[in-house]
Specification:
Helices cover 51% and strands 8% of the residues. The protein is built from 19 helices and seven strands. Strand 2, helix 11 and strand 3 form a beta-alpha-beta unit. It binds 6-O-phosphono-beta-D-fructofuranose and magnesium ion. The site of magnesium ion has 8 residues, from helix 16.
């Protein structure tokens, strides 16, 4: 049940795995330790202080393990719902492996699970999020793009007077195409790659204007957006479908996802949207329930943008109120299945989390956001770029009950598929002309798999 291509591993010096395992992850851990030290310096209760110092010692040990090629040990039973899944996978496949010679995807996920353990076994700091400050801070520095969207999409979507049915449909199609791109490029701001971003860098990544989007569409190297629209249109005819988002990053990306989901509800394309987040801090900026609540409540009550006008603040507040209302009415539902925080790829989703597979199979469309989800869908292996998406995702396309899937991903790592029959040539050309094209987030894919009825 594995693909025929080798999975990337940390010791593959030609891949981004090498830089990630050897350099990026230790840097991320050092920054995480700095964050905990900042918290420690503001803590007054002795028991809480000493408890937190033990968390820091465990983080130091993890950093040492990471850098000294220590073997991957089982996860301590800290009561998390995923412990059994983790230890089963370690025992079955990764006995004796270390961070560099285990598959990159697994080793990287394992690091975040061990980081979780540093806190989950503590007495007072079980729910501490070492990335929370960073996530909030980046969103509060994203004001320009945030208000551009909130002022534009505040008024619910409605058609101009006197349009024919065909014109209405075309207006919806255009809006759908634009918002799909906004949702896609919202993925550029993941914090694991953009440590210490300047205000200018954030701005350039978040331009959302129409002209900009027309220019960026040519950077979508595998583009099934037209087919995606056909699918959505048919859902509307059937009184609106259920759409699932397997979320990626908190803050601005989540905000873009919600703008998109809002349009899907208002236009009648969807009647229910389910958002799938992580149970604990994951790959630096992934969404947890706390991030979700923080976003909605900051929009309604927050004072994050001191330079904003009253009108801008009001637009954000009203948008946030609408989204909270969707939650109350059950039109938006937030979920957090333990499987999303494991080291398994989605080739194993149907066998390792059959309840989740069944749940997703009832959806009309499951949108997977971002690079990590894409790596997990494709087994993070060296498949040729011309490989069809349906083939690259294995059982997620071919198993009975596989849902319809769309991957919205800006390319930030080695695996690239779905570029069409000329894809290998195109990738080779980019390899020679534009070093780093696979990790810059400048390019993207929007790939669709129809799934298989159960
Ligand atoms: O590939 C580089 C990387 O930083 C990985 O750590 C991770 O898969 C991914 O990018 C994070 O990006 P995203 O938030 O889009 O999943
Ligand atoms: Mg992420």
């Amino acid at each position: 049940n594995n693909p025929p291509w080798p999975a990337f591993r940390g010791y593959h010096t030609y891949s981004f795995a090498y830089a990630t395992m050897g350099h990026r992850l230790p840097t991320i851990l050092s920054k995480a330790i700095d964050d905990v030290v900042e918290t420690l310096n503001q803590e007054s209760e002795e028991e809480r202080v000493t408890d937190l110092i033990e968390c820091i010692s465990r983080m130091d040990k993890l950093k040492e393990d990471l850098q000294s090629q220590a073997r991957l040990r089982p996860i301590i039973d800290d009561g998390e719902a995923d412990v059994a899944l983790w230890n089963k996978e370690i025992a079955k496949y990764f006995q004796g492996k270390d961070f560099m010679n285990a598959p990159w995807l697994f080793a990287e996920a394992y690091k975040y699970r061990r980081l979780r353990e540093c806190f989950s076994v503590s007495k007072y700091w079980q729910h501490y999020d070492v990335f929370f400050r960073q996530k909030c801070d980046t969103f509060s520095r994203s004001g320009d793009a945030v208000f551009e969207l909130s002022t534009r999409f505040l008024e619910p979507f409605k058609h101009k007077e006197g349009l024919s049915d065909a014109e209405k449909l075309e207006a919806e199609r255009l809006m759908f195409m634009e918002l799909t791109q906004i949702c896609l490029w919202g993925n550029s701001t993941d914090l694991s790659l953009l440590i210490n971003m300047t205000e200018e860098q954030i701005k350039s990544l978040q331009s959302t204007g129409g002209e900009h989007l027309a220019a960026t569409e040519k950077n979508i190297l595998g583009n099934d957006m037209a087919r995606l629209w056909e699918t959505m249109k048919n859902l509307k005819t059937n009184t609106g479908g259920r759409i699932d988002f397997v979320l990626d990053n908190a803050g601005f990306e989540l905000y873009c996802d919600c703008v998109y989901a809002d349009f899907l509800i208002q236009s009648g394309l969807a009647k229910e949207v389910r958002f799938h987040g992580k149970r604990y801090p994951w790959f630096v900026s992934d969404v947890t329930k706390k991030d979700w609540n923080w976003l909605l409540n900051s929009m309604v009550y927050g004072h994050l943008f001191p330079k904003a006008t009253d009108e801008e603040m009001e637009s954000l507040r009203r948008l946030g109120l609408r989204w909270k209302q969707y939650e109350k009415e059950g039109k938006w539902i937030y979920e957090q299945h333990p499987f999303w925080c494991t080291g398994y790829t989605y080739w194993d989703l149907h066998s390792e989390a059959p309840d989740l597979f069944l749940h997703l199979s009832r959806s009309d469309l499951v949108i997977f956001k971002g690079d990590l989800n894409h790596r997990k869908l494709t087994y993070d292996c060296a498949a040729p770029p011309s490989t069809e998406f349906e083939i690259a995702i294995g059982p997620m396309a071919s198993a009975a009950g596989a849902p319809r899937i769309c991957s919205l991903r800006t390319i930030k790592s080695d695996v690239v598929v779905g570029l069409g029959s000329d894809g290998d040539v195109l990738a080779e050309k980019l390899d020679t002309e534009e070093a780093g094209w696979k990790i810059s987030g400048k390019y993207a894919v929007v790939l669709l798999s129809e799934g298989r009825p159960g």
